[in-house]
Amino acid sequence: MSSTAQTRPPLPPFSRESAIQKVRLAEDGWNSRDAQKVSLAYTVDTRWRNRSEFVNNRDEAQAFLTRKWDKELDYRLIKELWAFTDNRIAVRYAYEWHDESGNWFRSYGNENWEFAEDGLMANRFACINDLPIKESERKFHWPQGRRPDDHPGLSELGL
To answer: By residue range, what is the domain housing residue 61?
Structure first.
């Protein structure tokens, strides 16, 4: 559980609408690439598995995100609700990025999230695969930051 008095709506138990909202808020946060701000969406004792890396608290999450966005340049992410229950949400997502040599990738993944009563994420389990792509194969072309509301999601893009 979180040790903060603040809440992070929408709160569990989730409805379909509130789960979709929670997913979009997470997408928006990660697209900001502000590791300090994004880390505040997680409990102080959050636990993650991200590929083969394990994160055991909010400070480690912030450090992880800083390293991630230092490596994954021009990062653009789209998340989509897959399933939900009272305090859990499953998402699928794809993001595009390039390395310092200019090699482009589309990374596909699934995440399982578990939330504390205050709406902060307590557990995050991610599985991710990287697909090398040509720059001409990119599908995510909005300016850095929040995906525009009229930009297609994963299903609309056939991903």
So the answer is: 16-137
Beta strand pairing call for 53-55 and 121-133 = unpaired
Q: Looking at the 3D structure of the chain, how many domains does it have?
A: 1
Q: Give the Cα separation of 85 and 97 in Å (integer).
A: 31
49 and 125 Cβ atoms separated by less than 8 Å:
yes
Q: Would you say 8 and 22 are in contact if contact means Cβ atoms under 8 Å apart?
A: no
Mean predicted confidence (pLDDT) in 123-140: 98
Question: Which two three-digit tokens encode residue 74?
Answer: 């021009």
Choose among 110, 131, 113: nearest CA to 43. Answer: 113
Tokens of 121: 């994420």
For the entire predicted model, the pTM comes to 0.95
Q: Note whether 18 and 8 are within 8 A (CB).
A: no
Looking at residue 14, its pLDDT comes to: 98
Q: What is the CATH number of the domain that holds 56?
A: 3.10.450.50
Asked whether the beta carbons of 99 and 73 are under 8 A apart, the reply is yes
**Residue 18 amino acid letter:** S
* CA–CA separation, 32 and 75 (whole Å): 9
26 is a domain residue: yes
152 domain-assigned:
no
Residue 71 is assigned to a structural domain of this protein: yes
